[in-house]
Amino acid sequence: MNVGTRTIHLSDRAINTQFPVLIHYPTDAESKPTRFGPFTMDVAVDAAVARGLFPLVVLSHGGGGSNMVYRTIASHLVSEGFIIALPKHDGDNKDDGRLTNTVENLLNRPVHITLTINALLRDTEFGKVIDLDRIAMIGHSMGGYTALALAGGQPWTRSGRQVGVRPDPRIKALVLMAPAAAWYGAPAALDEVKLPILLLVAEHDHITPAPVTDLVRERVPNRDLVEYQLIKNAGHFSFLSPWPEEMRSPTFLPSVDPEKFDREAFHEDLPEMISDYLERTF
User: pLDDT tens for residues 28-38?
Assistant: First the structure.
């Protein structure tokens, strides 16, 4: 199948938020190389959705990040028959960081995901082809925080304040990449997380190091639900798709990996690792 793509714009007056969602999906239409800022993807813009019944994956980007930096994962999932939705979190992205490191961001991020699922299920095209029993979430860094909140996790602020987030029972599985799990350090914070989890951890991660990511393995009540993979020699940003050569620089940390780590080779394996896990889990 080819990759169709379109962008929708969502808003919620209750939390005064508005944000775009990039959707990639199976299509029978002809695709062609298309520029998205500095990136190029082989897609069919605004094409019709292919017939069928497809799992839905929502991917939550890291703090101060972008929904465009996971294109290798997105393209592969569509080729395997998934629909993938990538919201750009309002107030916590590369273009707008006004809410980064705030309690408001902790509250809003999970809402963005629920709004995204609501919009797709109500859509006249997507609503007919999404398999309601196969909805999953991928989260990188703060996206991992977001995924755990929607799976029943109860986050706490650094000052000891409980954050009032709501789970989304439609989500059936999680893929966590270097998750920002420090918000779940309270003893019972992950007691209600009862979904299967693929936990991918970078060996040389100085942003979400082992004591942080290990909270998922240690605090989820049924540890058999957590499938753990340590990515040897990887860093925190190794989960991002490879950058165009002209954007790679020692001063641009998202493009930097530990010495001798081959991000291009890793992104031949990572998308397949994720799709294989989701297919086994569903």
Answer: 999 999 998 89
